[in-house]
Amino acid sequence: MKLSGIKRHLRSYSIVQRRKTTINHAFASALAPCDAFDEGQLAQAMSLLGQADFNALQCVYCNSPATSWDHLVGLVKDSQLSGYGHQIGNLVPSCRDCNSSKGNRDWRAFLRETIADVAEREKVEQTLAKYLHTYAREIDLRRVQDEYPTEWQRDNEIKAEIINLMSEADRLAERLRLQVVA
Fold it and tell me: Domain locations in the chain?
């Protein structure tokens, strides 16, 4: 650890700057479709990924022991739900490092950065594309917006209200912060 690391703790905290993404993700997660837990279907899906030991899954990106589930296609794009949600075909075993490094980026771009061997990368890319196509359906937000415009608008209004309240809390905190140690 370096002494300079303390800098991030020695500045005022902004609720909106630090948590707006969390709110967008929470609203997207709440809307995202999710598959039921079906052990048979999961076994088939993991087999398609080449996972032999279901009690010791491997990261699909680097073959290290998996420690988390990564959304192959991120849940949020431009502050809205996108992609495939919490469907089996959008969830892949991943190690913490790959999951963190990939973040919300395109999985194909991440593979290009992660797997140097072209033949291996193409094999992994084909496998993941087949997995996604076989076990997930892309979200159609336009249809939901068109069929449920009132509910869609209200959901977005509630999210905006929460973000506005966080902004108000930031303004209050800035004034109160000066008095906390006065």
Answer: 17-160
